[in-house]
């Protein structure tokens, strides 16, 4: 009986999360109300407050859940199994958690989620932290991470008009075959 009640509670909570993400994908946060979420999910306001304090709390829980999922997924892989490019990771995560990704990286997604995501990434897995003595390191890291996230968001907003392979190929070419990036990445401490 307890399992059935927990399952029903999980379904109710997920329905509210999904309704919020659907709304957030199409509306700025300030336009989303408890009433709009509960109406879309098919529940009442009292039910909403059993799970969340307010819309900000709901957003925080969506963000934390996705960040925990990303961290858990990456930590479950050995270093050799981890894909080398952030865009590959984003596509894989998108395939499993599309609702949250669309909302948080969509046109109304908050900038601070992107910042939280960047801070939560293990840079060694992306071969982005090997330039410890390079004065350009913070700029190159920001360029690679931000551009990957922005290209991924653009791909989502354009209805995934490139295949996954084309998107990964595009980002790979932009990163790995960019002579200016390579030159800056190879700057030695004595070049400072």
Automatic annotation (TrEMBL):
<dbReference type="Pfam" id="PF00440">
    <property type="entry name" value="TetR_N"/>
</dbReference>
<feature type="DNA-binding region" description="H-T-H motif">
    <location>
        <begin position="33"/>
        <end position="52"/>
    </location>
</feature>
<keyword id="KW-0238">DNA-binding</keyword>
<dbReference type="InterPro" id="IPR050624">
    <property type="entry name" value="HTH-type_Tx_Regulator"/>
</dbReference>
<feature type="domain" description="HTH tetR-type">
    <location>
        <begin position="10"/>
        <end position="70"/>
    </location>
</feature>
<protein>
    <recommendedName>
        <fullName>HTH tetR-type domain-containing protein</fullName>
    </recommendedName>
</protein>
<dbReference type="InterPro" id="IPR001647">
    <property type="entry name" value="HTH_TetR"/>
</dbReference>
<dbReference type="InterPro" id="IPR009057">
    <property type="entry name" value="Homeodomain-like_sf"/>
</dbReference>
